[in-house]
Design a protein that fits this description.
The structure holds 2 protein chains of 2 kinds.
Chain A (H helix, E strand, L loop, with lengths): L31 H68 L2 H4 L3 H20 L5 H33 L7 H14 L5 H20 L9 H26 L5 H59 L4 H4 L7 H19 L4 H28 L8 E3 L5 E3 L8
Antiparallel strand pairs in A: 1-2
Helix pairs in contact in A: 1-3, 1-5, 1-6, 1-7, 1-8, 1-10, 1-11, 3-4, 4-5, 4-6, 7-8, 8-10, 8-11
Chain B lengths: L2 H22 L9 E6 L3 H18 L2 E6 L3 H10 L6 E4 L2 H9 L12 H7 L2 H6 L1 E3 L5 E3 L1 E8 L2 E4 L8 H7 L6 H13 L5 E2 L10 H15 L1 H9 L7 H14 L8 H7 L18 E3 L5 H4 L20 E4 L11 E10 L4 H10 L2 H8 L21 H12 L3 E3 L1 H4 L2 H16 L4 H15 L1
Parallel strand pairs in B: 1-2, 1-3, 8-9, 11-12
Antiparallel strand pairs in B: 3-11, 4-5, 6-11, 7-9, 7-10
The chains are: A mainly alpha, B alpha/beta.
């Protein structure tokens, strides 16, 4: 202890209940232990409230970041990836048929790779859906349509070879007709495979955007935490002043440490939440629009190219060398989004730091108040004649003492 | 307990609660009373079905989760393979109903239906379609008919015939013969406009409009007796009756000048938009052979110039005549079809929905919509509930018909029906290969029956 122990104020009040009835018109005075207990209760309540507020704030923010990083972003990315891969598969099939390569290679290697990629993305997407949910049901439909699409492309391949064998007897190019049916299965605006994936991707993107703009990511939210923290600090200041006045102490180290722990918690929380908020803002304002733009522009180009090939038999050779999707560009954009979300989710040691610092505040408070309260413990409630002064001794007060 | 402990205890309890809440989160109870339904209805038809079940949802509190796709059959096959079918699904054909009932994939719905009441509401032919033998050979109800269609119908736009009053009189004559019709179409073709609109594209079911043509011709040329033998697999595809039907179909579909756009356009045009040129100015074609459900598509077509936002109106811009008999043997009979809904998961909610869908109230909710194209075969549904005279006439024909035959490709075993669809496309592509195609179908027939 920095201050000398054991010297109670000469006007020390007897324990609770010993004070005489206040004179009419005069404010009733509280006994010292009662005031100590009330101060302790107030500081602890404010500390607990700040603990609760900090926990809710940190958990809420981390839950937002975690949900965006581990569920919503993968769901969106898998949906758009599956959609783009299927668009590209359709383009690859048209390129193979229009160029004549399908006579030797069928719909081609690019088609096979795209179908594999789309299938894998849809599998991952299915794993993210709750069983029995509308998304799960829709994915079942999409999965069935994918099987149907593939079988129509296979049929197109078979008919294409038959057309070649028939020569002039074939007047409808049935192979290309079946490929058109396959494209229709894929691209029908109502009930088509891609429309089904769009039904998943659109809400997924909206959900992700909504999550990134969640109220938990508001920079002003730490102010909610600041209220109980300031109350705790005010309580500690009041307690220090009371102890200095009543017990002649310049400063109480435990209460000083309690105040330091509260300030530390507040500072750490503000820095951590602002860091997470910044990462979420970057994801929302830059990374997600970049990624969405990449997928949109690439898919649009692929769709347009496939439509040209489907509509114009003569265009085959000239556009067959198109590059289709550009995976490296989407991977870069996807990596940037993932990095932002991972950064937002990473709270460092804060989840453990909050209870530790709050507990430290509570313990230091208790340590600061306990010696003073112990001084009153031996005096029976209501007796009010003896005030223990700790190890330094005590003074005997007359019954009815406790008045200042 | 000391006073300081009294302060700590509630605080710690509160903290534990906060921690538990923060870590565990709060879950919401899973939705109960949901029925998943897979169907082929999209667009206006989907809206009609959803309108039909909305009353059920309000009344029962059960949610209907509907998925509509033209590839419902392929999706259902995939779902069944994965062991995760929807609660209820539209079955592609009565042939599929028989197959799924026989291998216990479908659940009998006798308990869900009030069978005694059904007999008073549905004709015996329709009730028969809802039944199939279980694996032990016992006949049960396995499906309901949600809506039906009249297939022996030829559509035309009365506005496009105004300057041909004589031809219109002939076309709408109740005694129109096939010969008169082909004479009329020959005159139209000679005038430079293709008489027929045709489109056979329908995703994975492409080709069915062609099977409808061949079925209607066979039914009205050789009569119900041979039609039944053909459906039952006892009349070979290479028989005279079947070959004649294919040839009559080919005389229209494969003859230059008869169909708008020619063979390639027939193959690539979707059945739902095939009738669009009929409403163009000048018309690209004058006649369209489609089932009664096509009205829901006509209502979306552009009237006049392409891109027009005015749509054809039922009765004013399109009406129908019955498919004419080719011979005396084919008179007085009609081809029909219906959408069968079967139960794959026996749940109280699914049973409740099945029971509801057979009621006149449910059927009325769909057929009374102006753009639905739906016809109910429930005899308790009054004709006055139909929104226009064309729908009423169709419903009257359908419910009042005494000698109807269900769509052949739908009634055949699924393998045979699918081969039929593909054969139509191959025939359009290479008409000279008809004999080879029909011999191939006979090979399939031997395996399918």
């Amino acid at each position: 202890m920095i201050a000398a122990r054991g010297k109670a104020h000469s006007g020390g009040t007897a324990p609770g209940g010993s004070a005489p009835a206040a004179a009419p018109g005069r404010r009733r005075q509280l006994s010292t232990p009662t005031r100590l207990r009330r101060l302790l209760a107030a500081v602890l309540t404010a500390t607990v409230l700040s603990w609760i507020a900090a926990t809710i704030l940190q958990q809420g923010l981390q839950a937002v970041a975690r949900s965006a990083h581990t569920a919503l972003s993968p769901a969106y990315q898998d949906a758009v990836q599956a959609r783009a891969a299927l668009s590209d598969a359709d383009l690859a099939a048209w390129q193979a048929f229009r160029s004549g390569a399908s006579q030797l290679t069928g719909p081609g290697l690019q088609y096979q790779n795209d179908i594999t990629n789309a299938g894998e993305a849809l599998e991952r997407l299915a794993a993210l859906q709750a069983p029995g949910s509308a998304g799960s049901s829709l994915l079942q439909t999409i999965s069935g349509q994918l099987v149907s699409y593939q079988s129509q492309v296979e049929q197109a391949d078979a008919e294409y070879r038959r057309d070649i064998a028939l020569g002039a007897a074939s007047q409808g190019d049935l192979g290309l007709v079946y490929l058109t049916y396959a494209s229709s299965t894929l691209r029908a605006p109502q009930g088509g495979l891609l429309a089904g994936i769009d039904e998943l991707a659109g809400p997924s993107q909206q959900a992700l955007s909504g999550q990134l703009a969640s109220p938990w990511a508001n920079r002003a939210l730490p102010l909610v935490f600041a209220v109980p923290a300031l109350l705790a600090l005010a309580g500690l200041a009041a307690a220090s002043m009371f102890l200095r006045r009543r017990f002649k102490r310049a400063i109480s180290l435990p209460l000083l440490l309690a105040a330091a722990a509260t300030c530390g918690l507040a500072g750490w929380l503000v820095i951590a939440t602002w860091h997470a908020d910044s990462a979420l803002a970057a994801a929302s304002g830059t990374a997600l629009p970049d990624l969405a733009g990449q997928w949109q522009s690439q898919t649009k180009a692929v769709d347009a190219e496939a439509a040209t090939l489907q509509a114009n038999p003569a265009s085959g050779g000239s556009v067959a060398s198109s590059g289709g999707l550009n995976p490296s560009a989407t991977q870069r954009a996807s990596g940037a989004l993932d990095a932002d979300l991972a950064s937002a989710e990473n709270a460092g040691g804060l989840p453990a730091g909050i209870p530790l610092l709050a507990a430290a505040t509570v313990i230091f408070c208790y340590a600061g108040f306990r010696p003073r309260l112990n001084e009153y413990r031996a005096i029976p409630e209501g007796a009010g004649v003896r005030l223990r002064m700790g190890r330094a001794g005590g003074v005997i007060l007359p019954t009815g003492g406790g008045q200042r | 307990m000391t006073s300081t402990k009294r302060i700590f205890a509630p605080a710690l309890l509160a903290l534990m609660l906060v921690a538990a809440c923060a870590v565990g989160g709060c879950g919401s109870p899973a939705a109960v009373g949901t029925v998943t339904v897979l169907g082929t209805w999209t667009g206006a038809e989907q809206s009609g079905f959803l309108a039909m079940v909305s009353g059920f949802e309000r009344k029962s509190g059960i949610r209907v989760d509907y998925t509509g796709t033209r590839d419902a059959n392929a999706v259902l096959t995939s779902d069944l393979k994965d062991g995760n079918p929807p609660d209820l699904a539209v079955l592609a054909t009565p042939g599929e109903l028989d197959q799924d009932a026989a291998d216990s994939t479908l659940v009998p719905i006798d308990a869900a239906l009030k069978s005694a009441g059904l007999a008073g509401e549905y004709g015996p032919g329709w009730l028969k379609l809802m039944k199939a033998p279980d694996p032990h050979g016992h006949l049960h109800y396995f499906a309901i008919i949600v809506k039906a269609a009249l297939k022996s119908v030829i559509w035309y736009d009365p506005q496009q015939w105004k300057d041909r009053p004589g031809d219109l009189k002939l076309l709408t004559s109740p005694h129109l013969t096939w010969g008169q019709l082909t004479g009329l179409t020959a005159r139209l073709a000679a005038g430079g406009t293709s008489p027929w609109c045709m489109g056979f594209e329908d995703s994975s079911s492409s080709g069915w409009p062609g099977t409808d043509w061949i079925e209607d011709i066979l039914l009205h040329q050789s009569g119900p007796k041979y039609y039944d033998q053909w459906v039952a697999g006892t009349l070979p595809w290479t028989s005279e009756q079947v070959v004649r039907a294919w040839q009559a179909f080919g005389a229209i579909a494969n003859t230059p000048g008869q169909v708008d756009g020619g063979t390639r356009a027939e193959l690539l045009t979707n059945y739902g938009t095939a009738g669009q040129p009929m409403f163009a100015s000048p018309p690209g074609c004058y006649l369209d052979h489609e089932g009664s459900f096509i009205t829901s598509f006509y209502n979306l077509d552009a009237l006049g110039s392409p891109g027009s936002t005015t749509h054809p109106q039922t009765g004013t811009d399109f009406s129908f005549v019955p498919f004419p008999a080719l011979t005396a043997a084919g008179q007085g009979t009609e081809e029909v079809a219906g959408d069968l809904l079967g139960m794959f998961h026996d749940t109280p909610a699914a049973r409740e929905l099945i029971a509801y869908l057979t009621t006149p109230q449910a059927q009325e909710a769909w057929i009374s919509r102006p753009d639905s194209g739906a016809i109910s075969v429930n005899q308790q549904v009054p004709l006055s509930d139909y929104p226009d005279h064309v729908s009423r006439d169709l419903a009257e024909d359908l419910t009042g018909a005494t000698d109807v035959r269900f769509d052949a490709s739908d009634s055949m075993p699924q393998m045979m029906g699918n081969a039929f669809l593909g054969a139509v496309l191959e025939y359009l592509d290479a008409p000279s290969q008809l004999n080879i195609i029909l011999r191939g179908l006979d090979q399939v027939r031997k395996a399918a029956y």
